[in-house]
Amino acid sequence: MQYTRLGNTGLVVSRLAFGCMTFGSGEGALGSVYKVDQDSANNLVAQALDAGVNFFNTADAYANGQSEKMLGRALGKRRQEVVIATKVGNRMSEALIDQGLSRQHIITAVQASLQRLGTDYIDVYLVHRLDPYTPLEETLETLNDIVRQGMVRYIGFSNWPTWLAAKAVGLQREHGWAPFRAAEMYYSLLGRDLEYEMIPFAQDAGIGIQVWSPLAGGFLSGKYTQDNPGGNGGRLSGFDLIPFDRDHGYTVVEMLRAMGAKHEVSPAQMALAWLLAQSSVTSVLVGASKSKQLDENLGATELHLNAEELADLGRLTMPQAIYPHWFNQAIYDTQIRDALITPVTHNS
Fold first, then answer.
1. Using alpha carbons only, how large is the chain's radius of gyration in Å?
2. For residue 122, which of 72, 168, 73, 179 has the smallest C-alpha distance?
3. Where do the coiled-coil regions begin and end (predicted)?
4. pLDDT in tens, 9-53
5. Residue 320: left if φ>0, alpha if ψ -120 to 50, beta else—which one?
6. Cα(85)–Cα(62) distance, rounded to whole angstroms?
């Protein structure tokens, strides 16, 4: 297993983190995702621990709290050996106020998460989504309070736009509040938008990026093909959230399959290895409902892509630049770049 620090902190985390979204059961949009019972969760967590994983990720809203409960039980006495990240913000019941990032809900939610996880502190607490109805200052001050009270060690955000995260960091510095040190964001070979704004900002602000859905909802596993677009009832058949060009996706999978054959690995391992090769990525979240699937994902840490493979995948999946990035790229001063021993490299 590979390890790194979470952003500008002394917290050491495994570069593959175990995502517990599959733990529990339920109906609705995520019914096809919740499929792991407690016994299976115990085995998967033990397998991850044995492989050196020390970073576990969940959320209060996953299976309406079941995921947190099951993770806490599966870790048991080994809780002190690991880093737990969980999230707040999504609706937890029909009660109107049982959602969002208000002071009322965050305090209620963190206390509930602590109880479900069976712990007296949460290592990394992330706001799960935007809340346009709560003042940003209220959210940030409350997060600061729960850090100062010892309920939470580090805080972060998930699925926020860069401008809002940058505004939040400015307010945290102005008021001396606990700073954001983690960002859980979507990033994959089929979704590289993060590279234009969020990654440069996060690196500058000392924020570690945790990647969710590194296989684009499972598409990059290779189980979805033009002949079998449903993947025999895979996750995308019930939870198809991530937008991408399917035809282009099939082309990317074919390249992963061809490259993987040379290494005797799967397309999924190739896609994970590409993310692990990105210096901007702290940890990649891998979920699993079966031991074999988890073992395959964990094997990505042993795969090292060469410069040519990284370049080929980079060219094939490069997102179209948006303004002002295409303009700045067009007028970039290559003469000074080539003259410097350590040039600055960025997308702008």
1. 20
2. 72
3. none
4. 999 999 999 999 999 887 766 767 888 999 999 999 999 999 999
5. beta
6. 13
The CA-atom distances, in angstroms, between 155 and each of 219, 228, 281, 299 are 30, 41, 17, 29
Amino acid identity for residue 26 in this structure: G
State the catalytic residues: 62
Burial class (CB in 10 A: 0-12, 13-18, 19+), 340: exposed
Domain boundaries, the chain: 3-320
Q: Which of 2, 14, 22 is nearest to 71 (CA)?
A: 22
Q: What is the pTM of this model?
A: 0.89
Which tokens sit at 287? 């979920």
Averaged over 263-278, what is the pLDDT? 94
Nearest 10 degrees: Cα torsion 12, 201, 102, 287: -50
Owner of token pair 């979507």: 186
Q: What is the mean pLDDT of the chain?
A: 91
Enter the CATH code of domain 3-320.
3.20.20.100
Over the range 305-334, which residues count as b (16 or more CB within 10 Å of their CB) and which as e?
A: beeebeeebeeebeeebeeebeeeeeeeee
Using DSSP, state whether 191 is helix, strand or coil.
strand
